[in-house]
Write a structure and sequence with these properties.
By secondary structure, the protein is α+β, with helices and mostly antiparallel strands. The protein has helices spanning 2-22, 110-117, 135-152, 158-179, 188-192, 197-214, 218-230, 234-251, 254-271, 277-290, 299-308, 312-337, 339-343, 351-360, 366-389, 393-408, 412-418, 421-440, 442-454, 458-472, 478-495, 499-502, 504-516, 525-536, 543-571, and strands at 40-46, 57-62, 70-73, 79-83, 92-98, 101-107, 121-128. Helix 6 runs antiparallel to helix 18 and helix 20 runs antiparallel to helix 21 (478-495). The radius of gyration is 27 Å and the shape is elongated.
Length: 574
C-alpha cells in the first residue's frame, strides 16, 4: 500500500511540474492598474551591451527636496515606472542606484517638467549604465575561475566545486558586505532567478526515461551485433562502433552512452588483441560529436535550447549534416592514425568472444523493453511536435517520466534512485554561479570585447564562437563554459544582421563546446569517465596518447562544423 502511494505521489509531482511549465503565469503588468491619471516617469535600464538591468533602485526628487518622494525598482526587462504622488512645480531629479553600475543622475528639462505638471507621463527611453568594477566583481570573477580550475583538474567533484563557488559568493555577500558594501554580489532571491527550471526538469525527466531502457540489456545486445556485423574486421568494427555510439549519444546523453559502451569495447579489444585505446578514442569523440544532433544529446544543447528557444527539430535539421561531416572526418583520421595497429590484427570472429557476447546480449525483460521503447519513441515524436503544440521540452520529459513510473517501472524507490540528483544540484549551483558573474558585469565585459573583435561580420562571428569556444573547451569543462557564454552570444547575435533570426551563433556555441571537449582528456566528463574505467581495467588512457589523436581531429571537426553552419545559413538560407 505504502509503495503504491509513493509511486502515485511521485507521478503526481511530475505531472504538476509539467502543468506548471505548460500553463503561462498571470500577466505581470508593470502599471498601477487603478485607472487614475497620474504623473508617471518611466524608462528602460540597459547595460553597455544593451541587456536589461533588473533590481536597480530609482529615486525621484521633486523641487530640490533632499528626500526622494518616490522610489521604484527596475524589472527583469529593464523597465521601471515611478508614479509621482504630486505634480512637480519647478524641478525633477532622478537617481539610479545599482551595486554593480555607476550611479546615474538626471535632471529633467523644463519642458519635461511641464508635461509632468499637467498629469501626463514622461518616457526617458533607454538609459545605458556603466559598469562599476567593485570588489564584488573581483570576488565573483575569481571564484568562478577557481571553480573552473577545480573542475578541470579534478580537485573536487563538479557539484561540490559549483556549490563551493556559490557558498563563497553568498558568504561574501551576506557577511562581507556588512563590513564593506562593495563586496555585495547578489542576494538569494536574485540568485534563484538565474536557475533555468526548464533545464532542470528536462534533465530529470530524461534521466528516468533513459535509465529504464539501460536496465533492459539493449546496449549489450547492440555490442554483440556490432561484433557480429564487423566479422572481426577492425576497420569495419570501428565504423560500426562509431555509428552505434553516435546514434545512442543523439538520443541519450553521451556520459550514459559511454558508461554502457566502455566495458563492452574493452572486452572486444582484448579478445582481438587490439590496444583498447584504438577503439575507445573514436568512441569518445563520436559520443561528444554525435550528441550535438539533438536537443537532448548533450547537456550543453539542453542549456542552449532552453536559453535561445531552439527546438528539437531545429537542432536536428540545422546540425545533422554538419555532425555527419565531422564524424566522417574524425573516423577517417582515426583509421589513418591507427592503420599500423589495425593491419596487424588477425581477421575473423573469435568463437570464444562471440559466445560470451551472445550470452551477455540477452534482453533481461522483453516486456519492459517493449514498453520503454514505445514510451521513448513517443517522447521523441512529441519532442518533434513540441513547437506546434507550444509545449516546452521539459513538459514532454516529465510526462514521459510519469508514464514510465505508472506503466513501465512501478518501483518508486528504484525510479528515484535512477535520477542523478548530484547532476541536478550541479546545474542549479552552476546557474547561480554564472548568474553571479553576469550580475557583476564580467559577462558583459567579455561580450563587449568580443563584439569589438567580431563587429557585424557574420563569418568572423561564427569562427570566433565555434573555434574560440572549441579551443577553450580543450581544458575548461564545456557545461559551465557554454552556460557562461550564452549571454555573450546573445549580445553578439544582436550586432550581426540575420544572426538573431537564424540563431547561427548559438549553433556555433553548440558545436564549439561539444566538439572542443574532444581536445584534451580533461575537456569533458565523457573523456574523464572513460579514462577512469579503462585505467581501473588495467588499460590507462594517458593525456599524451589521447592528445596525439584528439587535437588534430578537434581542429578539423571545428573547421568542418563552422563551414557547414555558414553553408547552411548563408548559401542554403535559414
Amino acid at each position: 500500500m505504502r509503495q503504491s502511494v509513493l509511486r502515485y505521489a511521485f507521478a503526481l509531482l511530475c505531472l504538476l511540474c509539467a502543468v506548471g511549465l505548460l500553463v503561462p503565469g498571470p500577466d505581470s503588468a508593470h502599471g498601477q492598474g487603478d485607472g487614475q491619471e497620474q504623473s508617471t516617469l518611466l524608462g528602460f535600464l540597459l547595460t553597455e551591451q544593451g541587456q536589461a538591468i533588473a533590481e536597480a533602485e530609482i529615486e525621484v526628487f521633486l523641487d530640490g527636496e533632499e528626500e526622494p518622494v518616490v522610489t521604484a525598482e527596475s524589472h527583469e526587462d529593464g523597465l521601471w515606472e515611478a508614479a509621482l504622488p504630486r505634480p512637480p512645480e519647478q524641478s525633477v531629479e532622478i537617481e539610479v542606484i545599482h551595486p554593480h553600475y555607476n550611479t546615474w543622475t538626471y535632471e529633467l528639462e523644463p519642458e519635461e517638467v511641464a508635461v509632468l505638471s499637467q498629469g501626463e507621463s514622461v518616457n526617458l527611453g533607454e538609459v545605458n549604465l556603466d559598469y562599476s568594477y567593485t570588489l564584488g566583481f573581483w570576488v565573483a570573477s575569481l571564484t568562478f575561475l577557481a571553480v573552473l580550475l577545480l573542475i578541470a583538474f579534478e580537485k573536487m567533484p563538479n557539484a561540490t566545486a559549483a556549490l563551493f563557488g556559490v557558498a563563497v559568493v553568498f558568504a561574501v555577500t551576506f557577511f562581507g558586505s556588512k563590513l564593506l558594501s562593495d563586496l555585495y554580489v547578489f542576494n538569494f532571491e536574485r540568485a534563484l532567478t538565474y536557475i533555468n527550471w526548464e533545464v532542470i526538469f528536462l534533465v530529470m525527466g530524461m534521466m528516468i526515461v533513459v535509465s529504464v531502457i539501460e536496465g533492459t540489456g539493449l546496449f549489450q545486445w547492440l555490442a554483440f551485433m556490432a561484433y557480429r556485423w564487423s566479422r572481426g574486421q577492425p576497420v569495419i568494427l570501428v565504423v560500426v562502433l562509431v555509428i552505434i555510439t553516435t546514434l545512442a549519444s543523439a538520443l541519450l546523453d553521451n556520459v550514459t552512452t559511454m558508461l554502457l559502451m566502455v566495458p563492452i569495447t574493452l572486452e572486444i579489444a582484448i579478445a582481438l588483441n587490439l590496444p583498447p585505446t584504438s577503439l575507445l578514442i573514436p568512441e569518445i569523440m563520436a559520443s561528444n560529436i554525435g550528441g550535438i544532433t539533438t536537443l537532448i544529446g548533450t547537456p550543453t544543447n539542453i542549456l542552449i535550447g532552453a536559453y535561445a528557444k531552439i527546438s528539437f527539430n531545429d537542432f536536428l535539421v540545422n546540425q545533422t549534416i554538419g555532425v555527419l561531416l565531422a564524424l566522417i572526418t574524425m573516423t577517417l583520421y582515426v583509421l589513418w592514425h591507427f592503420r599500423a595497429v589495425f593491419s596487424q590484427v588477425e581477421k575473423g570472429i573469435s568463437p570464444t568472444l562471440y559466445a560470451k557476447l551472445e550470452q551477455n546480449a540477452k534482453i533481461k525483460d522483453i516486456n519492459v523493453l517493449r514498453k520503454s521503447l514505445l514510451v521513448f519513441a513517443l517522447t521523441i515524436v512529441v519532442f518533434a511536435m513540441g513547437e506546434g503544440l507550444e509545449m516546452v521540452p521539459a513538459v514532454t520529459a516529465l510526462l514521459a517520466a510519469t508514464v514510465m513510473l505508472v506503466w513501465v517501472e512501478t518501483d518508486v524507490h528504484k525510479m528515484l534512485n535512477l535520477v542523478d540528483w548530484t547532476t541536478l544540484v550541479f546545474f542549479m549551483a552552476l546557474f547561480m554561479l554564472v548568474g553571479a558573474i553576469q550580475e557583476v558585469g564580467l559577462i558583459g565585459t567579455i561580450a563587449g570585447f568580443m563584439g569589438d573583435v567580431v563587429g557585424n561580420n557574420l563569418y568572423a562571428g561564427v569562427f570566433v564562437i565555434t573555434l574560440g569556444v572549441g579551443f577553450l573547451s580543450f581544458s575548461i569543462a564545456n557545461i559551465p563554459l557554454a552556460a557562461s557564454m550564452l549571454p555573450v552570444v546573445e549580445y553578439l547575435s544582436g550586432n550581426i544582421s540575420g544572426a538573431v533570426s537564424s540563431k547561427i551563433l548559438y549553433y556555433g556555441l553548440s558545436m564549439g563546446s561539444a566538439m572542443g571537449g574532444n581536445g584534451f582528456l580533461i575537456g569533458g566528463e565523457t573523456n574523464l569517465m572513460t579514462a577512469g574505467i579503462a585505467e581501473r581495467a588495467g588499460y590507462p588512457l594517458s593525456f599524451g596518447k589521447f592528445a596525439r589523436v584528439s587535437i588534430p581531429v578537434t581542429i578539423l571537426t571545428l573547421i568542418v562544423g563552422s563551414l557547414w553552419l555558414l553553408f547552411r545559413f548563408e548559401v542554403l538560407g535559414g
